[in-house]
User: Fold DUF3986 family protein from Halobacillus kuroshimensis.
Amino acid sequence: MFWVNDLSIDKGGSLWTLGSQGEKLMYNPDLHFHIGYYEGYDLEVVAYKRIWEPLWDVYVDDSGPGTLYSQVMNKGLGVSVDHYGILIFSIDDTKNFEKQAYHSFEKWLRHYKLIDVDA
Assistant:
């Protein structure tokens, strides 16, 4: 996991942030993906595609349905980033990205006991 220090918008409209090592993380403002978990819940996060790396960063934002944002804040999970929400994990950009995204989100929810782990 990397820590986020700052957020800016460049002249071309790309969104970027700096990681803990000072690396510049740029997002394509036209590429985002909604990942939902709806098996008895109404939970959703948004992934943003990095421009220079084959990764998607997954955020919980405060405008989503339910109380996921407040649960994540109360448990101190992830890193808060202005304009995005809370960065919770990253996913490799593979040809199975969509399936991997849903699986990773469900696994993350279960790991932090944000959904019923016995289901």
Helices lie at 68-75, 97-111.
